[in-house]
Design a protein that fits this description.
The complex is a heterodimer of chains A (293) and B (359).
Chain A (H helix, E strand, L loop, with lengths): L1 H9 L1 H21 L6 H18 L4 H24 L7 H23 L4 E2 L7 E6 L2 E6 H23 L1 H11 L1 H6 L4 H24 L3 E2 L5 H14 L6 H20 L3 H15 L14
Antiparallel strand pairs in A: 1-4, 2-3
Chain B lengths: L15 H10 L1 H20 L5 H26 L7 H18 L4 H25 L2 H21 L1 H4 L5 E2 L4 E2 L2 E2 L2 H23 L2 H11 L1 H6 L4 H27 L1 E2 L6 H14 L4 H17 L5 H5 L2 H17 L3 H25 L6
Antiparallel strand pairs in B: 1-4, 2-3
Helix pairs in contact in B: 2-8, 3-8, 3-11, 3-12, 3-13, 4-5, 4-6, 4-11, 5-11, 8-11, 9-11, 12-13, 12-16
Chain lengths: 293, 359
Amino acid sequence: MQPYLQMVFSSLTLISVYTLATMGVVLIFKTSFTTNFAQGSIAALGCYIAARVALSLQVSIWMATLIAVFIAFLIGIFIDFVIFRQGKNVNALGKQIITMGLVLMILGIIPTVFGSLTIQIDRFFTGTLDFALFGMTFTVTKHALFCFALATLILTAIFLALKFTKWGLGVRATASNEKVAQMMGINTKVITAMSWAIAAGLGTVAAIMYGSGQDLNPSFMGGVQVNAFLACILGGLSTFYGPIVGAVLIPVFSNIFRYNFSAWADVIVYALILIVILIKPLGIFGKKIAKKV
Amino acid sequence: MKNTTLENNLYLPKTGAQKFKAVILNPYGHFLLFGVLMFIVLLLRMSGLVQYSFVSALGNTMIYSMVALGFCLLLGYSGLASLGTAGFMGLGAYVTAYFVSDLGLPYLLVFAIAAAASILVGVVVGFISLRIEGIYLAIITLGLSEILVNVFKAAESFTGGSSGKGLLGLEFFGIRVSQEMGFVMVTVVLVLLMSLTLNIINSPTGRAMLAMKNSTSAAQAMGISLLKYRLLAFVLATLYAGIGGIMYMTFVQYSKPEIWSIALSLNVLSAIIIGGSRSIWGTLAGTLIIFGINTMFLQNIEFFRTNPNFIYIFTGLLIILVVMFFQGGLAQLFVMLKLFIKKKIRQFKEYRYGEENVE
């Protein structure tokens, strides 16, 4: 029992990273109706900004994170404004291709702006913590605990905002039906811009959590992004909380299987996701929207 | 009903000029011409006029074009999205490598086996597509591709794991396959696939797929079996991707699991969107832009050689601009150009000969 629970605790960092990244993907999907393939790249860009700021301005990791998130907000708004606002006639597939173009551009921009030397970013906390639970001892890094706490805080804030603020209401309305939301007087342009900004910020925090303590390269968020998409599918894109549940399940099961099957763990997890989707085609929490022909 | 004999058929070419036009405009002739052009490039290379890297890049572009053609059938004509292209290519490549290197089977047999494996996977994906739709399907195919890549990494005895697998001792009818020979084979296969694609597009099958894309309900009402054509679309697309993988192994003769990443799938998707998802030449042009221009042309420009990252920025920007302003891709651009030229010619004729003399 102990190894499995230990696996859960070891996954805390990954859970935090995946849930934040998935939330970003979900927000953009619900408001701009496109899968954002550039989520990982924008996140990586934010992480690079944080690392460079920490290095050049000699500030602590906390300050660097805040600055990077702020800049990421601006980048998100910029992307929405310049690209998606201008491309009014682009259909859904076209928007996805635009995000792919963004991936390539950022892939080129990062080495150009930051140089090709490897760069690193510090963890929030170092050291581990041992504690006892149910008579068994577990080890957790403080970094993981903090990431988990931070992710929970951010996600709770977003869900509260979605439920109780005007912005949240606007997001839910736009997600439900954009044209009608516009007719009802909701400023969908602001909603979309803010969603992009928040998604960029979420990605940046996720990237900082994921990339700390290792060498960064421009595509290091690639794996996270794929798993974020899978989490969206698993949880179902009809709700906001579905993908988050998916984002928690994937790393936990992946680590649990890794304990027994090591190399084949990922294959098993993906195969299980496939089976779940075959049983429930719209995700675990998906709701079928009937359309009149 | 009047019987239409050959003499009465109004559409057959009669005059010499019409016959000449018919031959020149024959699309299959164009494909053959393309193949001949590639041979000429190879000859130039062998005589030293063209660099090796150019030919290598051209070969790679042709291989990705094959995959893109399959994707063109899937997305442009059937309206189904799949992001699993990279994994399917990898499957073709690794099956080829294993059966040739480890088991020493003859090339044509291995080709058939790898093609059969691709068809099998295509059938599986096709059945999945009946249950799942839209964005969910696209990401599930992405998941499938990731499963395949992880299998490539894990099944070390078959695939050499992360250190990759090379192709040793490949022979075709007793002739050792070199780079030049591989290039010839790639060209032949590409021309064949282009002709096959054109046949499919202009056949009742192609029209059924188009009907399915525009409205599944209307297509079913017209008696088109969704099951049959969805399966067919996925089988074709996966087969093309598998063949692309086989030819990749034949030409490049080496493969690593990391090559078959989502980035590759996305690049193929971008290629057909840029080129125009319903046009064969457009697909080729799009693939050239995404995969070819970098190594074939830009490397010769000093600026891009010292700043390779600008190539990414350039390509990414190009993709964004084309999608924003030329939704039909390069094919649409080409059609617009053709109409523009025709209009100008007509205006010139009207000016020269008077309006009443122009047909």
